[in-house]
Design goal:
Layout: H1 17-23, E1 32-36, E2 44-50, E3 53-59, E4 65-69, E5 83-85, E6 88-90, E7 97-98, E8 104-106, E9 123-124, E10 126-129, E11 132-135, E12 161-162, E13 165-169, H2 173-181, E14 195-206, E15 209-218, E16 237-243, E17 246-251, E18 255-265, E19 268-277, H3 291-327, H4 337-364
Antiparallel strand pairs: 1-11, 2-3, 3-4, 4-9, 5-6, 6-7, 7-8, 10-11, 12-19, 13-19, 14-15, 15-16, 16-17, 17-18, 18-19
Length: 365
Amino acid sequence: MSPVPSPPPNFEEAGNLRQQARAAGMDPDYWYAVEEVKRVKPGSVVEVVFWKRSIALFRGEAGSFHAVENRCLHRQLKLSLGEVEGCRLVCAYHGWEYDENGRVVGMPDLFGRKGVPKLSVRSYPVQVRYGLVWLFPGDPELAERRQIPDIPELEGPGRWACVPLSFTCSAHHSMVIDNVSDFSHAYLHRRYRPFDEANLTRCETIGDDVHLAYNTRVGRGRISGLFVDHEKVDTNYMELCYQYPYQRSNTDDEIKHWLFVLPMDERTTRAFFLFYFKSLKIPLLPIRIPRFAMVTVLKIANRTLIGPLLSEDRVAVEAEQEGYEKHWDAPPIEVNPVVRAFQKVTVRKWREHLARETEGADARA
């Protein structure tokens, strides 16, 4: 009977950069996409998780979004098991009511009390942008200073077409980030060919951002390539950036994307992709698809091309997670220097966050 392998080390015990990266969380003092707007109907509540922290995201009947710690103070039930009435979140057990600020504002049975006691759970700043719901899980005083990334192409009357796409994978967030910017895995996508013949031309860390670029053939798939006007768009070069904690790419200012990861725990990540295009052409014709039809085209593309392509990545990183958990002590071997650059930023940012937490605890003691 073979021995059961020991689990991977935690962050403090990790002996090398890869082990540290695979155990690191993400700095909560940033805005994180937590759900697609369309998936939370008015008058409903869902559970979202940021690094092992359960949060109840609810939408008032009038449409506004709010987020509170996901527990009722009475018996500790998850508030996401309850219901939304007006703009209040009601616990499923005894009907305790919480407002958008997490305050208890109603109890069906007070047992002779003259008023509702002053009790509250933590609330979180929430914004809606680009079809996504964003939450700030860190210090609320920093929420106004730290901004959601500006994507001017997705705002205003001339905005580009974009249909968000999201999925949950059983893998650490650093594996997802590594995958999206490491073009050495073109073999995985040999069927769809989103990129091939990649040659890294830039890898530079500036502050918390890792900038990189590839000379590569973009959008050469048998079907997807028909929608790209290769004569007018330079699809032989792509710039990317790990703009902690986000990731983005740009192909000739015509084809762009952002990836927003939601780290749930050491082996679970939610990924939100925004792919957006200035224009696409009608296959076999030198005519661009009308702007009013682009959203419909992207919805079809998400189902038939982009979604299946990302499913290949999801299967790969989930397999990588399983392999890491069994062979975490194997010597790390990387052929693409961008992976090590990403991991250095991820580890440094997590270490800085832990240091701030320790300083704060010492100051309160």
